[in-house]
């Protein structure tokens, strides 16, 4: 079973119609059908899905873990199982090195702020976020709390200078309540980090922005097609819980990194990571503040291209003078 599961990227399992089930191999764009030797895997997967009470869940088969989602179809319930990591890896282990790794590991993030990791579903956002947390906890120490629905990768550190506590919010716990509860669980006088697994509602978005502006490192993941769309969505959500001016001021004050990633197919059928990153230079903060007069974020797109050029030629970025400065 494990030899087969090691090749699987995503399983599509019909609970009431085994013959319709199929899967995609890791990094492949073509569908694969189950053969007779793989029927035990198919049966085990469907049985694991039937045992789940929630529509979003994590299941383990053999040595592999999958994030699952159940949806109704014209042929009965369909369970989609996407392979996820079994334990926390560092950034280098998932292929993030050099200048890109330096963005997520910069010491100035210890002073707090907002790191947004965005992309389309299935593009590895959670993997990048948890790898960042593991590396930062091992290097800088401090206390990290994650809020996830469900918790995908086991990064509950028990050794080293830092600790990571994972909270699984599967069920009826809302993210906003969990954020407020977790803010009371940090020790005084140490580096504090929070991962918000996904921002889905106005209250969570506003709490994330305000917590980042208060000097805590907030790492959150969001679905977005591009970096500019991510900023628009985050501001729109946060504005729904307060007002647009407040959301803009909090974002300008707290933003440290906007990281958009995608997995691009290569000619050999494998996929490689593509990243667009935007850091909080003076130009970025100014562009967010100017949104009071204009809804256009084209200046941020221009700044993103200029920052990438500077990284390519190893030129320093013009960060805001103090990482704790308010915009």
Task: Please explain how this structure is put together.
Keywords: ATP-binding, Nucleotide-binding. This is Type II/IV secretion system protein. GO terms for molecular function: ATP binding; ATP hydrolysis activity. This protein has about 325 residues and is α/β, with parallel strands linked by helices. It has two domains: about 1-85, Beta-Lactamase (2-Layer Sandwich), CATH 3.30.450; about 90-320, P-loop containing nucleotide triphosphate hydrolases (Rossmann fold, 3-Layer(aba) Sandwich), CATH 3.40.50.300. It is about 35% helix and about 25% strand. The chain has helices spanning about 1-5, 40-50, 100-105, 125-140, 175-185, 200-215, 225-240, 245-255, 280-290, 300-310; strands at about 10-15, 20-25, 30-35, 55-60, 65-70, 80-85, 115-120, 140-150, 160-170, 190-195, 215-225, 255-265, 270-280. The strands form two sheets. Strands 9-8-10-11-7-12-13 form a seven-stranded mixed beta sheet, sandwiched between helices. Strands 3-2-1-6-5-4 form a six-stranded antiparallel beta sheet.
Quick recap:
One of its GO terms (molecular function) is ATP hydrolysis activity. Helix content is 33%, strand content 27%.
């Amino acid at each position: 079973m494990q030899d087969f599961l090691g090749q699987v990227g995503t399983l599509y399992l019909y609970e009431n119609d085994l013959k319709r089930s199929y899967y995609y191999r890791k990094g492949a764009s073509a569908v694969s059908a189950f053969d007779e030797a793989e029927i035990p895997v198919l049966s085990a997967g469907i049985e694991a899905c039937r045992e789940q009470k929630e529509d979003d869940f994590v299941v383990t088969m053999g040595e592999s873990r999958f994030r699952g989602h159940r949806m109704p179809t014209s042929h009965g319930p369909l369970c989609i199982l996407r392979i996820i990591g079994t334990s926390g890896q560092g950034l280098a282990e998932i292929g993030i090195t050099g200048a890109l790794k330096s963005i997520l590991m910069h010491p100035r993030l210890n002073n707090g702020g907002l790191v947004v990791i965005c992309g389309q579903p299935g593009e590895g956002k959670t993997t990048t976020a948890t790898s960042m947390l593991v590396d930062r906890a091992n290097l800088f120490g401090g206390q990290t709390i994650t809020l996830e629905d469900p918790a995908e990768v086991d990064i509950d550190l028990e050794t080293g200078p830092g600790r990571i506590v994972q909270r699984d919010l599967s069920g009826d716990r809302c993210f906003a309540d969990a954020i407020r509860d977790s803010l009371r669980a940090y020790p005084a006088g140490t580096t504090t980090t929070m991962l918000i697994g996904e921002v889905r509602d106005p209250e969570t978005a506003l709490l994330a922005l305000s917590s980042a502006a208060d000097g805590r490192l907030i790492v959150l993941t969001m679905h977005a097609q591009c970096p500019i769309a991510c900023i628009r969505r985050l501001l729109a959500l946060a504005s729904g819980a307060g007002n647009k001016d407040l959301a803009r001021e909090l974002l300008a004050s707290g933003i440290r990194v906007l990281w958009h990633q995608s997995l691009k197919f290569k000619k050999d059928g494998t996929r490689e990571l593509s990243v667009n990153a935007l850091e909080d230079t003076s130009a970025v903060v100014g562009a967010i503040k100017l949104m009071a007069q204009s809804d256009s974020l084209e200046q941020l797109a221009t700044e993103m291209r200029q920052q990438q050029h500077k990284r390519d030629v190893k030129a320093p970025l013009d960060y805001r003078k103090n990482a704790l400065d308010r915009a």
